[in-house]
Design a protein that fits this description.
By secondary structure, the chain is α/β, with parallel strands linked by helices. It folds into 2 domains: about 230 residues, Phosphoenolpyruvate-binding domains (TIM Barrel, Alpha-Beta Barrel), CATH 3.20.20.60; about 30 residues. Strands 1-2-3-4-5-6-7-8 form an 8-stranded parallel barrel, surrounded by 6 helices. Helix 2 packs across helix 4 and helix 5 crosses helix 6. The model has no long low-confidence stretch (mean pLDDT about 95). The structure holds 3-methyl-2-oxobutanoic acid. The site of 3-methyl-2-oxobutanoic acid (KIV) has 11 residues, from strand 6.
Length: about 270
């Protein structure tokens, strides 16, 4: 825990995170490889190896075709790079449709990587899955609100919490996940008042993405946060740098120096 500093000095555990609720905002970014995980090490509290890698890394249209093999491969890489943040493997679509598949696949995630938790999408209807995992010693990060794995069944990405009735449903979802043993909940794509009400209703931390200022923490997908993903920019994404622009400019410089036979100079030559 980094109470009131911007650095994380010790390995973050589930107990660290639970103590941060209401005390200090929790930070999480996604990462998919050791290089970036190492850059994030010591700064963020949690790293999510999100199935968003299917879009930002593999160039697919949605997250639905991500596989357990992919998630394990990328989580191993992230764990090699990051020693301090709590690392979470995002369970892909179709790998936790029933309790027995969920336990089998999440056990594999624990056995083959050093992830300390898994994330699954779903509210009240998935509480039995969360319970099955937590009672088998697997830590679970929940995910409610806009759930990308429900994209096709919901008919698109829909912002939630626009009415009191929907806020009540989201609160019920959050409470069911808490009751089932989830250690924290990602709250995605909800009106700010919904994010606030959900956060107040549960004793575990809420981590918002497009959920306003009042959740216990914030998560961003790294390729969004650092301006590498340029296909579209949702309203909630703040680009903390223009990564793609920087790379393009640097690449142009390299190409033009090579074409003009200006690289390598003596400095870069044996
Ligand atoms: O896959 C992912 O990156 C996620 C975040 C949007 C929370 O689930």
């Amino acid at each position: 825990m980094s109470i009131h500093t911007d650095k994380v000095a010790k390995k973050v555990t589930l107990s660290t995170l639970s103590k941060m609720k209401g005390v200090e905002p929790i930070t999480m970014v996604t990462a998919y490889d050791a290089l970036f995980a190492k850059l994030f090490n010591g700064s963020v509290d949690m790293i999510l190896v999100g199935d968003s890698l299917n879009m930002s890394f593999l160039g697919k249209e949605d997250t639905l075709s991500a596989t357990m093999e992919q998630m394990i491969y990328h989580t191993k890489a992230v764990c090699n790079g990051a020693t301090l943040p709590l690392v979470i493997l995002d369970m892909p679509f179709g790998t936790y449709t029933n309790e027995s598949d969920a336990v089998k696949n999440a056990t594999r995630a624990y056995q083959e990587t050093n992830a300390q938790a898994v994330k699954i999408e779903g509210g009240k209807d998935r509480a039995n899955i969360v319970k099955a995992l937590t009672s088998n010693s697997i830590a679970v990060l929940g995910h409610i609100g806009l759930m990308p794995q429900f994209l096709r069944s919901d008919g698109g990405y829909k912002i939630r919490g626009k009415s009191q009735e929907d806020i009540d449903i989201l609160i019920e979802d959050a409470k069911a996940l808490e009751e089932a043993g989830a250690f924290a909940i990602v709250v995605e794509g909800v009106k700010e008042e919904a994010g606030k009400a959900i956060t107040k209703a549960v004793n575990i931390p809420t981590i918002g993405i497009g959920a306003g200022l009042h959740t216990d923490g914030q998560v961003l997908v790294w390729s969004d946060a650092f301006g590498f993903f340029e296909d579209f920019k949702p309203k909630f994404v703040k680009q903390y740098c223009k990564g793609a622009k920087l790379i393009r400019e640097s690449l142009d410089e390299f190409v033009s120096e090579v074409k003009r036979r200006e690289f390598p100079t003596k400095e870069f030559t044996y």
